[in-house]
Structure formats: C-alpha cells, structure tokens
Design goal:
With 144 residues, the protein is an all-alpha fold. The chain is 49% helix and 0% strand. It has one domain: Cytochrome Bc1 Complex, Chain D, domain 2 (Orthogonal Bundle), CATH 1.10.760.10. The protein starts with a helix and ends with a helix.
C-alpha cells in the first residue's frame, strides 16, 4: 500500500513537471492572421549583410521597451517569462511549420510595426539595420 501511494505521488509530480516545462513553449504550428507586409517589403531580405551576433545581443538584452527573449524565450520557442501571460502566445521561431512561410520582409514589418491582436508591440527605437540583425539571429540560430 505504502509503495503504491509513493509511486502514485511520483507519477503525479513527474507529469506536473513535464506539463509545466512544455506549457512554456508555444505550440507548433501556430495559426496567425497577422497583417501582410506591403509588397515592396514582403520579399525584401537584407539578412545577407546583417550581423547575427549583434542581433543576439539585441534579442537577449538591448531591445527597448524590452528584450525579445522576455516574450519569445531564450530558445525562441515562445516560452519567455512574459510570454506566458499573452494570448495568443508569442511566435514560436523554433517551429519550422510555422516559420516556413514567414519571409524576412514580413518579420521586419512585424518588428517595426507590431502585430495587432497580439502582444507584439512595435519596436520603433530599433534602427532598420538592428532589426535585420535580429532577424538574421532568429533565422540562423533559433529557427529549426
């Protein structure tokens, strides 16, 4: 009897731990109705001359009003501390099914202007080159 109770407690704690860890990340794939970037920007890609290392610094600490990782998480999976409270969950960059159709130009548009109906605020304080740096970091280091 004692072993059965201990085993049951162990199973419950294990399930709780696993579900808590998984709950932080956004599901994959994610459906969105984000406004499409203007055609002049949608297919634009300036990541070739961007710097992923600078993008990582912006993503992790330097972006204002807050660092990208606060919502999108350090792994880019949407599991950031502040992202847990958002509906819909922040974009999961680690989800190939979600990101396969999101162009660099669309990402630029969203970072610059925000995304209505989500917690994604516009990052007007970032210069265009800094936004391309962040996009390069996301696309080379966080997207799977």
């Amino acid at each position: 009897m004692k072993k059965s109770v201990l085993f049951l407690v162990f199973v419950i704690l294990t399930l709780f731990t696993v579900s808590t860890a998984v709950a932080g990340a956004a599901k994959c794939p994610q459906k969105r109705k984000t406004k499409k970037a203007p055609s002049s920007l949608y297919n634009k890609d300036e990541t070739g001359k961007a710097d992923a290392a600078k993008g990582k610094a912006i993503y992790e600490k330097k972006a204002k009003p807050m660092a990208c990782k606060m919502c999108h998480g350090p792994k880019g999976d949407g599991g950031g501390k502040l992202g847990a409270a958002l509906k819909p969950k922040p974009r999961n960059f680690a989800c190939a099914k979600t990101m396969k159709d999101v162009t660099p130009g669309q990402m630029f548009w969203i970072i610059k202007n925000g995304s209505k109906g989500t917690g994604m605020a516009p990052f007007k304080t970032l210069k265009d080159g800094e936004i391309w740096d962040v996009i390069k970091y996301i696309r080379t280091d966080l997207m799977k």
